Amino acid sequence: MTIARADTIDGLVKGLAVLESFDTERQRLNATQTAERAGLTRAAARRHLLTLAHLGYLETDGSHYWLSPRVLRFSGAYLASARLPRVIQPTLNRLAAETQDAYSAVVLDSDEVVIVARGAGAGPVTRMLAYGMHLGARLPAHATSTGRVLLAALPQDELAEWLAGRVLPRLTPRTTTGLREFKALLAEVAEKDYCVASEEHELGVHAVAVPLRNPQGRVVAALNVIVSPGQLQETSQLERALERLRNAARELRQML
After folding, report:
1. This prediction's pTM
2. CB 3.0–4.6 Å: which of 36, 52, 163, 238 could bond 58 by disulfide?
3. What SS3 string covers 208-250?
């Protein structure tokens, strides 16, 4: 959404930029580091950090700052009020109970995908998953099965804008980083209407994803399952995984 410059509250924009400066790479920041990450002067970054700490959204030892549990109010409010995760969650719970695998529903947010609903059984694949597959986790769109499904569903002009001048980071030796090869992969995903990604985001993680469409046919999310390497190599097992995902997508379509 685009708004007029006069309708923009600069202080709010800067405050949110400060909060978004904290991530898994940098859990603790001082004023200088925050200024660099948020694109602010050091003095402005310091004022925002002090204000956010005063409001309880940050904790501090006097020199460094880190996020406090209060920031979870935002994610908690979204999960409690947003229709998408509430509609999808029962289906993921059922799939996880039936197969003991890990299922996620994911949406696209700029360069990343965000897990908004998740169901996990007690199978061996679920037990080996690394930290980062939790509800609310943000993963790189270019290296994940769900990200590719969502990117492949974008209108051509939006996809061209997303790809323009982009550098695709190499996360594992198997990550696709060439733009020409990546565009070809997205075209294949769009044609097949599903995506398989094997160890491109994290070694040992193999996933299959399909789009979730609303009654009007617009892709609003992606649904995936984490599978063992053997399931990708055996056509029958991959087809069974796809059948479960596609059946779930059809069941959910009228509710999305």
Report:
1. 0.82
2. 52
3. EEEEEECCCCCEEEEEEEEECHHHHHCHHHHHHHHHHHHHHHH
